[in-house]
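[Q] Does anyone have a clean C-alpha cell version of this?
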Amino acid sequence: MSGKKQMNILSCFALKDQLPKRVARSEKETVEKTVDEAVENPLETGKKRGFSRAATYRCFFKKEWSTRSPYITMRTTSSFYWCTVCRQENSCAHQGVRDIQLDERTVMLKQQRGAVREVRDMSLFVLLLLPGLLFSTSVPTRYYYYINARMSWAEAQSYCRMKHADLATADTKSHANRLLGIVNDGYKGSVWIGLKRGTQHQWGWSSGDNTLTEYSKWATVDLDHLCGYFSSGLWYNLSCSTPLHFVCYNESNAYFRFSSARNWRDAQSYCRQYHKDLATVKSAEEQAQLHALVGNGPSVWIGLFSNYWQWSDRWSLFFRNWATTQPVASCDCAAMSTADSGKWAAEVCDLKHPFICHGSPKIRLRKNHYLNETMTLIDARNYCRARFTDMATADTMNDVNSMMNTVDPGYNGSVWIGLLRILPARWVWPSDSTSVSQYSNWSPGEPNGNWECVKSLNGSWFDEDCALTLQFVCFNDSTGYVHINTPLTWRDAQNYCRQHHTELASVSSPEQQGLISNESSVWIGLFLDSWLWSDGSRLNFRYWKTGLPSAITETGICVAMSTTDSGKWAYHSCGQKLPIICYGDDKLIKKQLVRLNLSCGGKCKLSDTSLQTTILNEASLMSSLHSKGGAETESEAA
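[A] Here you go.
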C-alpha cells in the first residue's frame, strides 16, 4: 500500500483467520453484521466470539476488508481504545509503531464526566508516517454538549440557544452514535435532540441529502403515503408498510438490488447495517444506473420519504434514526433513547429530560486592563484601540465582577466602559446577541412606542411601563422556566432572576411561548435598547443602576461603571474625565531574545538563587541597551 490513500476507519474486529480475498456476498454480510456489533462494544463482542484482548485485529475500511500488509492490532486501556499499525503480522513490538485513536465515539465515551461533556465530531486527521504508508481520515467539524439538567423540549431549546447554537442536529449515523457516546455512563433514558414535528411535509432522502430541488423523477405524488419507490424509470409513493424489493447503495455510490420483500423501514435498516443506506438518486446519471439495474421489473423501495419533522435550527438535511414503530402520531418532540442504542422516538414535549446542544459556547473570555489615568470617553476609546483591543464589554455578571476586580482597590468612583448610545432603538433579549426579528409574538398594534419593557398576556406581547409591578418568569439553567408570583418592577424582576436563577425569561419559539403563563400579565426579558458596545459586538446584557435607563434628551451621554454601587452602570457626560478599563492583549509588550554566554570557571553553581538574580538583572540590562541600539546581542556574565 503505497502513496497517499484516504481511508475512513469504521471499526476493527478480531479474526483468528484471514478473510479470503474473495468471499460470497452472504458470508461477507454476516461478517459485516458482526463488525457493526463490535463497534458498539468491541470487548464484549470479542469475548462472545472467544477472542482475548491480545487477539490480532484487522481493520475494516469503508465496507472493504484490508487483505494486504500492514496488519493492524488493537489494544485497550481503561479509558481508550487504540489501533496500532504494524509492518508485519505479530511484529508490532519491533517496529517502533505509532498509535492512532480509532472510532471517535468509543474513544470519547469515557473521556469526560460531569453535567456538561463535549464531544467534537471532528476529523481524526491522522498521518501515519510508516515506510510506504500514508493515509488520513476526515469528517466535518461539529461540537456537541450533553446537559445533565432535566427540562422540557422547549426549555432545552431555550437553554441551547442562549448558551450554544441550538438543540443538537444529526446528519449521519456517525453523528447519531456520537450523540449517544457523550451521555453520562449509567443513564438509561431519553435525551432531547433538536427534532420536532412541523406543520408541512417535505420529501427528502433517507441518507440526509436534500437534492430534490436539483433533480427529481416523480410520476405522481399521493399525499396520503409517505415512502417512495422506483418503477419503470419513475418515482412513486406508497404506504411504508407495503413489502417490496429494495435497492441499497454503498460508499462508492454503487447500487445493490435485493429481492427479499420488506417494508420501507426494514429495508432502510438492512441497507444501513450492511451497506450505507437506501438508494439515493441525485442526478440523471444515477437515475440511469438505477434503471439499468432494476429495469422494468418489480417495484423497489428507494430512499425517498415524506418528512413532517424539522430541526430546531432549520437544518435542511433529512437523516433520521427512528426506532421501530416510531414516530408515533400523538407526540411531537424527538428524544434519543440510550436504552435502545441511540434510536429516536417521538415523546410528549412537556416531559423533563436531559438534552444535547450543538455549537461552541457563547461565553467570551476577555483580559481586562485598568488604567488609572483620567481621560474623556473619546480619548479613552482611542487609547484602548491603540494599545489593546477596545473598551471593556460585559456579557454576564461574571464579566461585571471581572471588571470590578480589575480596578485598583483604593479607587472609589466611576470608570469608563465601552457602551455607546445608538439610534434607532431596537427590541432585544438580555441573554442573547440577536434582536427580536427572529421570532416575535406582538399583539396587534404593539409595540405602540410608549414604553421600553415587555409583558406577556394571553400568549401575546405588549410594551409596558417598566415601573409597573407584575409577576414575572425567570429562566434557570438547571430547571428551565420559573414563574415568580411576587409582583416587582421589570428592573427589580431582572435583578431577582439574576440573583436566584439565571435571567429574565427569553422567548425564541412558539414552544417556549407556550410555557409562559396566560393567566395574568407577567414580565419577560424583552426590552427596548438604544446602546451598542464600542467593539461592535451586539451583546445585550445590561446592568443599570436603579432608575436607569431613562429618556435622554441631550447629546453627549455615555456610560460608566460605578465601583461604589456593585459595578452598576450610570449616565455620564462623554466629556467627563474618568479612569478606563480596556480589554485585549497589550500591544506594547514585545518579546525579545537576549543570548548570554555564561561562565564562572567552575567556581559557582547555576542553581544558586543569588546568581540567578544576577543573571536576570544582566539579561534585563542587555535587553534595555539593545532596544536603544547600544548593546551587543551576546554578553558574558562571570
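[Q] Thanks! Anything notable?
[A] The mean pLDDT is 74.
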